[in-house]
Design a protein that fits this description.
Layout (H helix, E strand, L loop, with lengths): L3 H21 L6 E2 L11 E2 L4 E6 L6 H15 L3 E6 L11 E3 L2 H10 L5 H4 L3 E3 L2 E3 L5 E2 L9 H7 L1 H7 L13 H4 L1
Parallel strand pairs: 3-4
Antiparallel strand pairs: 1-2, 4-5, 6-7, 7-8
């Protein structure tokens, strides 16, 4: 069994490698966070609203890691969070696993424009049916009326596909057919 000091050293080296990878890939403010005990906000800082927990362990303890991540996301006020876990036998950060929760995954898809934000809200199974957006409830197969805002959000994928990205992300314009 590895000594606690050895484990801390390996963990610190892994965090530093993750920071270096972020710095090399467009995150200029990436840095390691200080330990804060029960108020810990994750291992890496540098992207507002994102919590990253780094793991360099022999065994994968996913339930515990996700529980820790969720607590740290609350402490950090982060909407996005992930565990960056070293793959055994592969030392490079680029070979690691990045693990997140289904809620965060759906939020990432929505923020990238692949799905409508309203669909990214976690549905909760409640007694008597499903509870989803805005506390609306219903049983599977039953329609739920949408507000104007919900209808607009439902059309986001179509609006995303129609956008013209030829000038880069800084110059997103409506498609030519919309400009007339």
């Amino acid at each position: 069994m590895a000594s606690p000091q050895y484990s801390k050293t390996k963990g610190r080296e892994w965090e530093t490698a993750c920071v270096d990878y972020q710095l090399a890939n467009g995150v200029p403010g990436a840095e390691r966070r200080r330990l804060c005990g029960v108020n810990d906000k994750g291992d890496l800082a540098g992207i507002i609203g994102v919590d990253t927990e780094c793991k360099h362990e022999k065994s994968y303890k996913l339930p515990g890691w996700i529980k820790e991540l969720r607590a740290e996301m609350v402490n950090a006020g982060a909407r996005i969070g992930a565990v960056w876990a070293r793959q055994n036998g592969k030392p490079g950060v680029e070979h690691a696993f990045v693990i997140t929760t289904p809620e965060v995954w759906m939020r990432l898809l929505a923020e990238a424009g692949y799905i409508a934000e309203m669909l990214a809200q976690p549905a909760r199974i409640a007694q008597g049916g499903l509870t989803g957006i805005g506390g609306q409830s219903g049983t599977p197969g039953r329609s739920v009326s949408l507000s104007e805002d919900d209808a607009l959000m439902a059309d986001l994928p179509g609006m995303w596909e129609a956008a013209d990205f030829t000038g880069g992300l800084d110059e997103v314009r409506p498609a030519a057919s919309d400009a007339a």
